[in-house]
């Protein structure tokens, strides 16, 4: 008896589906502001020079393709912890912090969810809108997801909704937080608001889960991890998924980590072993190429400096494009409906428009945005900002 008969064909993924739609659009004037991939001024996503150098080194020096380990390539854990948690964390690997290499940040989140099924966590609170894959990742392992509004109507961060959501959780539940560069809105809490969130998390006794996919694209590599460090310093337990996809530009190499922070060395070792056990039945071990690239770059002073310069260049280009778009909108008297752009950070900005608006500007102007108007700011081109501003304005009517 066929067992697949009842399965319906699903629509395309809301983000990845746009890639195909864009590719099939024959208009020369089209603009791809969809999937979260950094684009240079020529609209390309080149391999970083530091990554190329690490790959050249690997080609010469990699002597085996034997299995690595479920925890990842040797040295990766010691290399990634101080990037996410600061230089002072380097000496605390194995005592206070651990990191398991994962297939990208999505793998980090999936492993986090899988591990949570071994704990007392029943519900994960998620601010919406969020990356559309967050909710299914937790729901598919049987966890409940509760939601609260990430933004107020005026486009500012909705602290009250998050605090109310946390107060409605049961002690021992969890809350998912974007460490920086919120996807899709580009609106992060201020430092003062992060302190209020920390107080609420402490008071209720809930587990904070961080997603840090865009470290280095907001205020800088160290500054962007400030919220994560605040929570790790103040709380007994924190989990975080970190991604190397964007800041190393190694998207397809699927490289990330699940970070574990615990104030008990014994608990840290126990959790690390449980997480490894979960990973073993999910993917056995992560792909090694990206992990080796990251480990090699971070272990070589000159290469690390060159990577940091390249990351900084990407971040500065995004900031200057966002400012340029604000200026272009101001010049045609259309800034007011889009004024949140001025305070948004990271690869994304959200226009907070309707799906109908997004469809309209795609059809009339060939501008491709995600969901309710998420822009991949790096997809803008400096000499087409006026054109984009005009298309955004025209879509309003
Ligand atoms: C995005 O949000 O565009 C990226 O994280 C890519 C993805 O996997 O959705």
Give the secondary structure arrangement, pairings included:
Blueprint: H1 16-24, E1 31-32, H2 49-61, H3 76-85, E2 97-102, H4 104-116, E3 123-128, H5 134-139, E4 144-149, H6 159-168, E5 174-178, H7 191-204, E6 207-212, H8 221-224, H9 226-234, E7 237-243, E8 256-262, H10 265-282, H11 288-298, H12 301-331, E9 348-350, H13 355-365, E10 367-368, E11 374-376, H14 385-394
Parallel strand pairs: 1-10, 3-4, 3-5, 5-6, 6-7
Antiparallel strand pairs: 2-8, 7-8, 9-11
Bound molecules: (2S)-2-hydroxybutanedioic acid.
Output the keywords.
single chain; 397 residues; alpha/beta; Aspartate Aminotransferase, domain 1; two-stranded parallel ribbon; 43% helix; binds (2S)-2-hydroxybutanedioic acid; PyrdxlP-dep_Trfase; Asp_trans; L-tyrosine-2-oxoglutarate transaminase activity
Short synopsis of the structure:
Helix content is 43%, strand content 13%. The protein has 397 residues and is α/β, with parallel strands linked by helices.
């Amino acid at each position: 008896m066929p067992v697949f008969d009842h399965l319906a064909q699903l629509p395309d993924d809301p983000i990845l589906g746009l890639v195909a739609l864009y590719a099939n659009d024959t208009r020369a004037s089209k603009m791809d502001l969809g999937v979260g991939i950094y684009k240079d001024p020529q609209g390309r996503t080149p391999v970083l020079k530091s990554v190329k150098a690490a790959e050249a080194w690997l080609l010469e020096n990699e002597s085996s393709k034997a299995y690595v380990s479920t925890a990842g390539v040797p040295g990766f854990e010691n290399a990634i912890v101080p990037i996410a948690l600061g230089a002072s964390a380097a000496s605390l690997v194995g005592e206070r912090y651990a990191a398991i290499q994962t297939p990208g940040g999505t793998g980090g989140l999936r492993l986090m969810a899988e591990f949570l099924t071994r704990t007392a966590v029943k519900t994960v609170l998620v601010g919406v809108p969020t990356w559309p894959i967050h909710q299914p990742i937790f729901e598919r392992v049987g966890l409940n997801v509760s939601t609260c509004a990430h933004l107020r109507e005026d486009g500012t961060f909705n602290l009250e909704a998050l605090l109310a959501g946390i107060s409605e959780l049961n002690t021992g539940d969890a809350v998912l937080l974007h460490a920086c560069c919120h996807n899709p809105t580009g609106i992060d809490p201020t430092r003062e608001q992060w302190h209020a969130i920390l107080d609420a998390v402490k008071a209720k006794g809930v587990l904070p889960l961080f997603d840090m996919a865009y470290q280095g694209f907001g205020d800088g590599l160290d500054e962007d991890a400030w919220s994560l460090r605040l929570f790790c310093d103040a709380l007994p337990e924190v989990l975080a998924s970190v991604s190397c996809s964007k800041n190393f530009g190694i998207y397809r190499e699927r490289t990330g980590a699940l970070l574990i922070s615990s104030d008990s060395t014994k608990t840290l070792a126990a959790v690390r072993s449980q997480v490894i056990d979960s990973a073993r039945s999910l993917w056995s071990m992560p792909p090694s190429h990206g992990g080796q690239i990251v480990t090699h770059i971070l272990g070589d002073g000159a290469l690390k400096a060159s990577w940091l310069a390249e990351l900084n260049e990407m971040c500065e280009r995004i900031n200057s494009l966002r400012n340029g778009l604000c200026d272009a909108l101001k010049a045609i008297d259309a800034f007011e409906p889009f004024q949140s752009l001025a305070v948004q950070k990271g690869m994304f900005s959200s226009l907070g428009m309707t799906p109908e608006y997004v469809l309209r500007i795609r059809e009339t102007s060939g501008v491709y945005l995600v969901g309710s108007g998420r822009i991949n700011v790096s997809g803008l081109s400096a000499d087409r900002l006026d054109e984009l501003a005009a298309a955004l304005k025209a879509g309003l009517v």
